[in-house]
Amino acid sequence: MKNTTTIKNVFVKGAIAPDFIANSIAKHQSKTNIGAHDIFLGQVRADVINEKTVTAIEYSAYEEMANQKFHEVREATFSKFNLTCMHIYHSLGTVKAGEICLFVFVSSAHRKEAIKALEYVVEEIKIKVPVFGKELFEDETHQWKVNN
Questions:
Q1: Predicted confidence (pLDDT) per residue in 46-68, tens digit
Q2: What is the count of structural domains for the chain?
Q3: Is position 4 within any domain?
Q4: Which of the four, 34, 37, 45, 58, has the lowest number of CB atoms within 10 Å?
């Protein structure tokens, strides 16, 4: 449920495991006032940049500041949409291509509200939260990722 006083630590070390995602979904079966969930899973792509393939992204953040921004985005989303609950998790450290680095899970009584809220919150995270990704290439070189 919405909590306006506590700033939650949204960071997970390494990739977000599929069983963690499944367990998060399963925990909501007892919440019978929910009629819709919408989920966003951000996955690391094996992009080819300048003829080199990304094998992983190493995520870093000034955690206290980033958690504050995640909190602000979360609160703004609750103020704009009629949600029952929302969960946000983001990876820190190395996440390999094909693994999940961002998990956003919103719940509402109705599907349209959940769908609109999810799009809003994911876009706000990308714009406002200072999480940095260093793309690691197969040849062991790296570069800072540009959000798009």
A1: 999 999 999 999 999 999 999 99
A2: 1
A3: no
A4: 45
90 found inside a domain: yes
Query: Rg (Cα) of the chain, in Å, rounded?
Result: 16
User: 3-state class of 97 per DSSP?
Assistant: coil
- Residue 147 carries which DSSP code? P
Q: What is the mean pLDDT of the chain?
A: 93
**Confidence tier at 141 by pLDDT (50, 70, 90):** confident
* 61 domain residue, yes or no: yes
Q: How far apart are the first and last CA of the chain?
A: 30
Other beta carbons within 10 Å of 121: 25
> How far is C-alpha 27 from the chain's CA centre?
18
Phi and psi based region of residue 2 (left: phi greater than 0; alpha: psi -120 to 50; beta: remaining)? beta
In this prediction, residue 5 carries a pLDDT of: 59
The stretch 113-124 carries a mean pLDDT of 97
CB neighbours of 2 closer than 8 A, spacing ≥ 6? 78, 83, 85, 86
